[in-house]
Protein: UDP-glucose 4-epimerase
Amino acid sequence: MPPTVLVTGGAGYIGSHTVLQLLLGGFRVVVVDNLYNSSETAVQRVKELAARFGGNLSFHKLDLRDGPALEKLFSSTRFDAVIHFAGLKAVGESVQKPLLYFDNNINGTITLLKVMANHGCKKLVFSSSATVYGWPKKVPCTEEFSLVAMNPYARTKLIAEEMCRDQYRADPEWKIILLRYFNPVGAHPSGYIGEDPRGIPNNLMPFVQQVAVGRQPALTVYGTDYSTKDGTGVRDYIHVVDLADGHIAALHKLDESGVGCEEYNLGTGKGTSVLEMVKAFEKASGKKIPLVMAGRRPGDAEIVYASTERAARELKWKAKYGIEEMCRDQWNWASKNPYGYGSPENNR
Ligand code: NAD
Ligand code: WQD
Structure:
């Protein structure tokens, strides 16, 4: 019997790519998602991409805060491990609606941990974020850096990390891996699955993509006076398929002895500026991205990129793709699916 993994938020951007890699890696996968920020079409497409492994995937439309529904699922299936992606992730929205973020992200995680504990399922991979480093005083960010939340979204990640560390201290049979993602971009090379944010995108590359397909007139560049090579902000962009593979590496790590509650950065270790990223996308797409230069976005850090040493050493995982492949695959997805999983009439 292949190992069975529960994936919360598996219909979403990173979740769908991870589910595909899990299926191709021989795992059985059960996805739960309330489809708040995703479409069931993504799950269907993953099934198709997984070909003969597609039968190992099942989907339940379920809100993670619904304890009884989660209990029922755990009573009917024995899960070897859980990968927990489900959460809200828009920084600006979290500032406007902090209670929504605490309710969804914190209560969702508490419900999940409780139900896991009730059923003796003690292996967890959690989606944390580089946002827990706040505005780092130096780079690259190592996992030992002090943690700080600059907004309610980041606070939900920090609290969830602390809950995981506390749960492990209380019961050392738990094995938990906290993955701190840097900036996931790109799409599966098939162009069949990708990122499809609801409303106007907050993040750089989904916005660039919408400019390229004519859904937005121009990209606003937030800040041209940073102490960086060209004055624009620098980030560590990572191909979503590399990120997905990092989760498979984490699951294998959970099978080793001596694992407690561990933190790992998932990034490339390379910093790229906004203008470099735009240039790479223009090259990959052949489209001109009109720019509007503007002031800094409140709360933005200047330069953030990862130290990748711990993940390379302990997870035996390293990102394979560079920004050319990220932009190529993002454009492949965008040009084939200019309205994501929707349509011009039904534009989520
Ligand atoms: P996403 O919005 O595409 O996926 C999240 C999924 O969770 C969605 O399908 C959504 O419908 C689902 N969901 C949300 N709340 C739920 C609930 N209460 N019950 C059930 N399902 C629920 O986002 P993503 O980019 O794939 O991010 C996945 C995880 O990674 C999130 O926890 C996010 O905070 C984290 N993360 C994302 C980034 C990024 O830039 N994309 C960076 C660092 C960390
Ligand atoms: C990247 C760069 C912007 C949009 C956010 C979250 C973080 C994590 C990843 C989840 C910055 C610039 C952006 C635009 C721009 N998510 N930019 N014009 O800010 O590094 O991180 O997403 O955990 O928590 O804070 O990513 O893609 O928003 O911005 O100039 O329209 O692009 O100023 O320099 P960020 P981003």
